[in-house]
Task: structure prediction
Amino acid sequence: MTLPAKNTIVLLSGNEAIARGAFEAGVTVASAYPGTPSTEILENFARYEGIYAEWAPNEKVAVEVALGASMAGARALAVMKHVGVNVAADPIFTASYTGVRGGFVIVAADAPELHSSQNEQDSRHYAVAAKIPMLEPSDSGEAKEFMRLAFGLSERFDTPFFLRSTTRISHAKGTVRLEDPERPPIALGFVRDPGKWVMLPAYARKRHRVVEERMRALEEFAETFEGNRIEWGDRSLGIVTAGVSYQYVREVFPDASVLKLGLAHPLPRRLLREFADGVKRLVVVEELDPHIENHIRVLGIPVEGKEKVPILGELDPRIVRRSLTGEAAPVRPAEELPARPPSLCPGCPHRGLFFVLNKFKATVTGDIGCSTLAALPPLGGMDTCVCMGASIGNAFGMEKALGKAALGKVVAVIGDSTFVHSGITGLIDMVYNRGFSTVIILDNRTTAMTGAQDHPATGLTLMGKPSPRLNLAALCRAVGVEHVYTVNPHDMEQTEAVLRRELFREEPSVVITDAPCVLLPEHRRKQRPVYEVMADLCTGCRACSKLGCPAIEWVHFTPEQAAAAGKKPSQKGMARINPLLCDGCNQCPPLCKFLAIVEKGS
Amino acid sequence: MNRERGNIFLAGVGGQGIILASEVLCDAFLLAGYDVKKSEVHGMAQRGGAVTTHVRYGKKVFSPLIEPGKADLIVAFEKMEALRFLHYLCPEGAVLANAQEIMPPPVTAGKERYPDRVAERLREATPRVWMVDALAAALSLHEVRAVNVVMLGAASTLLPLPEERYAEALHARLPEKIVEVNLRAFRAGRALVPPAVV
Result:
């Protein structure tokens, strides 16, 4: 990456700014697992010179790698979405005890409004529970500044630091002033210190005391930290806020007094009191849970918060205005229109698999990723989805509850990247405890939903280096699955035959669907046919529409139009393939009994 | 549109290149000396779903989101999406919509109909509606993927920046070998909005 000159002002997303801040702070080791809205942080960081960045199989490993680098004296970064913090919680809670050598920052990106997530949890609770300080920027410029600061603070207080982002920080762009990278002050090398690094009970007990002392020191720091600041204005309204909510507050109440908190944990007691004493009405505006509000209540200060400001979803200027004043200018009602939900892409290999799987009327325990979209109509091919890797444990649990009745009736479906992240241990459980469920691994050779990131089974690293490709079939055999078969999901006849055999087998089996994601460059570069519907042959039976392919459109007929087209008056319409969308996957032609779907120009 | 500050709401369908168009738009405003903020969502929302991007410029911009009822210009890359987000438009606002129709899943499945009279319904909301055929313009350049830059070109006629700012931004943002076709797409887009209205 070519470095713009020092002090240049550029427009960066919060994620780009976080990456830039890490680079300027002299971070040399960074690890992450992709997850919206955090993915682009490491993608951007990986482009800088002189650093190491990797995709870890999951967030727990990412934190362990970054902590190891910190132990060795490097400034280190681990990045994850909010639910990734759950996966990484184990090392995080104890890293709080060990502390750091090189500055260590964990970025947690929350998803209020669940634009692409399975829950709406608030990561600030982790800062409190793990006793780790947390910075919370309110735009790209501050994201870069806070990252730059965080590593030095981490070293000064001997603690990991959290930096919390949210969708509207990570995926919003704002101006950032670029600066030169600094040279971290700590010399590389691991220094033996069992009392600090070996968390045996005897040592950990002593470290717990250190943690409590550190939190007290950080509470003092919070009182004077420049990221916590009072902007005095009209004193009849005082708003305590943080993160992107600060921007909405400034937009809607330019004259109000504002206490802007850049440190979400620990909170500054004296500053809060000073602010509360200086204003007539005190309100907290924060997204998701009443974290700041509860803290103020504990101090015995009367405050308004979640009884006015929604706890659900994200805020915006209109919601903030309405919450505090009860009024908002009327807007025209939203139009009633056909919904446009996300869907599997035209040509997606998952569609073929789920279409076939539907024939078995089995209970499908699903997982996180693009395949979750198969839960939507018309496929409706998924019955559960909880978290990364849950499909396998869920299927096995159902099998144990239902006994023999589950044979052929329960199947787990999981993507390749998700399987590597958290599915392997579930599969081991199933084999070890003598299950018979079938696990389908959808191997599209990428982490698709987050925008096609590599993973251990793609044979390429984040930094573009070739690496040994994790062999999923061999791995499944190694954990004790004897029946492992690979199918081409676009060939639905073959896929159905294999599933029919494996679903009813009284032993565990794994079926791997092997076809690349249509978004991958190697697929896009391929010459692919385009299919069309022969209008004179289409009877309007809709067999092809059941695929739910966005390229297959339904053209309505009136009885007159049907007659004019030479069809029976009862024919309600016909199928049409949009040539701009068709990916040439060849899933639909075999579904047409009337042979109406053919290669264009054939 | 206002030279001091403004809110531009971009809407369309995942895969249409709205994010790239909005990047170029923001770069152009930044090059012209404005403070700029923009917001969008990634991930699941992008898989063929409705996609929106909020772009705001001014001397100092706080919120990255446009408040409903406060967009000065809606640029819809797909016709129906202009209707879907019409409640974002301010009373004096303008709508620029691509006449292209992309069927959403309930319509392709034959369960619902694509709405009719879209242009008329937009005009009932505001007299300032421009309906352009960006797909035809892109196809005439043999580059179907350039619909986004055609729309950017058309939008530029309604915005307070000189053409050169966009050209600079396109040069800076795009790989060398596709700059030329995109500059042509941009100019083709500019030609779609009659100069009399600007």
Notes: The longest helix of chain A spans residues 201-224. The mean pLDDT of chain A is 96. Chain A touches chain B through 64 residues (CB under 8 Å). Chain A has 20 helices and 22 strands.
